[in-house]
Amino acid sequence: MIDSGIESLRVTIVNDMGFSEDTFNTAIRQVKKNGTIPSIDDVIAFIENMQLQGTDSDGDTFNQNRVHDDPFTENQRLKSLLMCMRCKSKDAYVLFLPCAHHRMCTDCAHGIETCPV
Predict the structure, then answer these.
(1) Which residue range is the domain that position 100 belongs to?
(2) How far apart are CA 26 and CA 16, in angstroms?
(3) 19 occurs within a structural domain
(4) Would you state the torsion angle of the CA atoms of residues 100, 106, 110, 112, taken in this order, to the nearest 10 degrees?
(5) In angstroms, what CA-CA distances link 82 with 7, 26, 103?
(6) Would you call the peptide bond into 38 cis, given omega within 30 degrees of 0 as the criterion?
(7) pLDDT, tens digit, for every residue of 2-35?
(8) How far apart are CA 36 and CA 51, in angstroms?
């Protein structure tokens, strides 16, 4: 069974940010090994640290290339990040704090107090 929190992190880091599954899995393993519950900040900090050091947690060369498809597909993916995650027809303008996700339009976000991501 996949933890929904980990799956949410995977979607954000792999699908939205474009990092590879291997990079994500390495970061999650390391953050868990440190005895903390993985948060997006912890995972991104670990990935950034791997990039700065040029290695992954096993000492292998870190592949800084993000996983991208052809330019058209990548363009479509990036455009979809700007659209409301609920109605998928309007631009996402609402910023949720403290997480800083902005994935909903003002109409869909009306009355929502916590980030749905």
Answers:
(1) 82-109
(2) 18
(3) yes
(4) -20
(5) 21, 28, 7
(6) no
(7) 576 788 888 888 877 778 888 888 888 888 887 7
(8) 21
Number of domains present in the structure of the chain: 2
For the entire predicted model, the pTM comes to 0.45
Helix axes 21-33, 40-53, angle to 10 degrees: 110
The structure tokens listed for 61 are 């060369």
Considering the domain boundaries, does residue 13 fall inside one?
Answer: yes
pLDDT digits (tens, 9 = 90+) for 41-63: 888 888 888 777 765 544 445 44
Give me 71's structure tokens. Answer: 């330019």
Nearest to 13, CA basis, from 23, 4, 64, 3: 23
Domain presence at residue 68: no
For residue range 79-108, list pLDDT tens digits in order. Answer: 777 888 888 889 888 888 887 777 889 999
Query: Given phi > 0 = left and psi -120 to 50 = alpha, else beta, which region is 39?
Result: beta
Structure tokens given for 99: 């997480």
Contact in structure between 14 and 20 (CB atoms under 8 Å): yes
